[in-house]
Specification:
With about 325 residues, this protein is of the alpha/beta class. An eight-stranded parallel barrel has the order 2-3-4-5-6-7-8-10, surrounded by eight helices. A two-stranded antiparallel ribbon has the order 1-11. The longest helix is centred in the first third of the chain and has 18 residues. It starts with a strand and ends with a strand.
């Protein structure tokens, strides 16, 4: 049996009645606390046109987080490549790697992370927005770091020679297969695509080819994890995330409300069924409950690493969740050899 590393994904949630600046400062405080607690990585995710999420510019935010910490790996979970020219991503993350060598992860996703109109505003052209072009754009991105791009003989500076650790992210089988074929580490979004987790990881391992980066598959699973002293409090703290999910599904995303406001919201029976399906296979509860849920996830997936994410209203509750998991859960988590 092997100990399982734990990492953190934070979306810089913007709470109702607060500012974006407060959300970003809270993310910075959480990164420092995660480092103190021994978490391996701290990632932020690119989203756009969402009033509840402040992490729309990962490279800028990561520069700040890296300067505010000293040992924890910082990275993107992820940068959505269809939104950006590969050269720009190479220069941004080459700069980060040059400033903080050996600490930067570049997680790449193929979805835009937003609606098509916003994606078009980001890219300013429909070229590059289709999934069919993603493998070539990823190949170009890697080649800017290695300097082996004959198709585009352009020097990425910074970039060339300063290559972060590249991950592929996914919520279906497409990126899983591509990550395997390229010999890259793979991170699966179990927190919003739980039904696809096991099949995607099977595809990743089946298609894996050893590369200059990895000699065997390395899979990380991102899971929603909210830990509190009791199951009841953890469920209560998860209320704002449940309401945010319902609002997003309805096409009217809002800043995150308080647990009290979420508890008072008139969820319909359909709302409750959807939120139950969304969170049933996650890890929400007391330390004993979270340990049992994460252990079951490891048994089903054989994940090499877990990345925990918690859409919780108050910073102190997000930090408390990480503390409880580090102190009372992490030591009991293992996966089959």
């Amino acid at each position: 049996m092997n100990d399982v590393p734990l990492s953190v994904l934070d979306l810089s949630p913007v709470a109702a009645g607060t500012t974006v600046g407060q959300a970003l400062r809270q993310t910075t405080e959480l990164a420092r606390r995660a480092e103190e607690l021994g978490y391996r990585r701290f990632w932020v995710a690119e989203h756009h046109n969402m009033p509840a999420i402040a992490s729309s510019a990962p490279a800028v935010l990561l520069a700040h987080l890296a300067a505010a910490t000293s040992t924890i790996r910082i990275g993107s979970g992820g940068v959505m490549l269809p939104n950006h020219a590969p050269l720009v991503v190479a220069e941004q993350f080459g700069t980060l790697e040059a400033l903080h060598p050996g600490r930067v992860d570049l997680g790449i996703g193929r979805a835009p992370g937003t609606d098509q109109l916003t994606a078009l505003a980001l890219r300013r052209t429909r070229e590059g927005l289709s999934a069919e072009q993603f493998p070539q754009e990823l190949t170009d991105l890697i080649a800017f770091f290695t300097g082996e791009n004959e198709r585009l003989p352009i020097l990425a500076m910074p970039g060339r020679g300063d290559m972060p650790k590249i991950w592929l992210l996914g919520s279906s089988g497409y990126s899983a297969q591509l990550a395997g074929l390229l010999g890259l580490p793979f991170s699966f979004a179990h927190h919003f695509s739980a039904a696809n987790t096991v099949p995607a990881l099977q595809l990743y391992r089946q298609h894996f080819r050893p590369s200059q980066w990895l000699d065997k598959p390395y899979a990380m699973v991102a899971v929603a994890a909210i830990c509190a002293d009791t199951d009841e409090r953890a469920e209560w703290l998860s209320g704002p995330a449940a309401l945010s999910f319902i609002q997003l599904r309805a096409g009217r995303p809002q800043p995150m409300v308080t647990p009290e406001e979420a508890a008072a919201y008139p969820f319909t029976s359909m709302d409750r069924e959807m939120t139950h399906q969304r969170f049933a296979d996650q890890a929400i509860g007391s330390p004993d409950t979270v340990r049992r849920q994460l252990t079951g996830l490891l048994e089903r997936t054989g994940a090499d690493e877990l990345m925990l994410t918690a859409q919780v209203y108050a910073l102190e509750d997000r930090a408390r969740s990480l503390e409880l998991i580090a102190d009372k859960v992490a030591g009991g988590l293992t996966r089959p050899s």
